[in-house]
Amino acid sequence: MPLSSAPFSFHIDLQMAERTHGIRISSSNLYKEVSTQNNFVIQLPLNIDVDRWTVIVFDIISLLKMSRLLPGSYVIEDSYQIKSLTLCANSLVRGVYTSDNEYDFVTLPPDMRFKFSLDINRWPEYFAWLELPNDIKTGATD
Q1: What angle (nearest 5°) sits at the alpha carbon of residue 60, between those of residues 97 and 75?
Q2: Pairing relation of β-strands 23-28 and 9-16?
Q3: First and final CA of the chain: distance in angstroms?
Q4: Which pLDDT score is estimated for 2?
Q5: Other Cβ atoms closer than 10 A to 37
Q6: Domain boundaries, given as residue ranges, for the chain
Q7: What is the structure's pLDDT at 9?
Q8: Spatial CB neighbours of 96, under 8 Å, sequence gap ≥ 6
Q9: How far apart are alpha carbons 125 and 78 in whole angstroms?
Q10: In whole angstroms, what is the distance from residue 142 CA to residue 125 CA?
Q11: Are 106 and 31 contacting, i.e. CB atoms less than 8 angstroms apart?
C-alpha cells in the first residue's frame, strides 16, 4: 500500500535461460504507459488506491509475451527464475509470494490472505486486487 501519492516503484529482475542478461519488470506510479527500455526493461504503470491495501498480481509469462523483448520462438515457460525483487520507498508491503497457480481473493491460500473476519463477499470493500498485465490498460484497482 503506498503511503501517499508520492512516487513508488517495484522491480522484479529475472534471470533468463540462453540470454546473457536478464529482464527487469519495473512498475511504478511514475509511468504513464507500458513501454520497454534498453531491450531488457518492461515499464508498467501502476494506479493504486492509497486508501486501502492492494494485492498486486504479476503474471510474468503474460508480461514477457506482451513485451516482445524475446523472440517469438523463445519458450518462456520454465526458462526464467526470479533473481531479485526490489521494493522502493513510499510503500508498505505485507508479503511477497510466488506461485505457479492462478488465484483470486477467494481462492488465495490462508498464508497469503489478509486476515479478514467478515464475509468474503465484502473483501472488495476493504482491499483492492490488481492483475498485471490485465489491469494495465484500464487502470482498475478492484
Answers
A1: 130
A2: antiparallel
A3: 14
A4: 60
A5: 11
A6: 9-132
A7: 92
A8: 85, 87
A9: 36
A10: 9
A11: no
Which three cell numbers mark 80?
A: 526464467
pTM of the predicted model as reported, rounded to 2 decimal places? 0.86
Q: How many residues does the chain have?
A: 142
Q: Which three cell numbers stand for residue 106?
A: 477467494
For the stretch 14-68, pLDDT in tens is: 999 988 889 999 999 899 999 999 999 999 999 887 788 889 999 999 999 999 9
Burial group, residue 55, by CB count within 10 angstroms (0-12, 13-18, 19+) = buried
Q: How far apart are CA 5 and CA 29, in angstroms?
A: 8
For the chain, the three-class secondary structure string (H helix, E strand, C coil) is CECCCCCCEEEEEEEECCCCCCEEEEEECCCCCCEEECCCEEEEECCCCCCCEEEEEECHHHHHHHHCCCCCCCCCCCCEEEEEEEECCCECCCCCCCCCCCCCCCCCCHHHCCCCCCCHHHHHHHEEEEEECCCCCCCCCC
Residue 96: other Cβ atoms inside 10 A: 12
C-alpha cell at 4: 501517499
- Assigned C-alpha cell, 98: 510466488
Give the whole-angstrom CA distance, residue 62 versus residue 4. 29
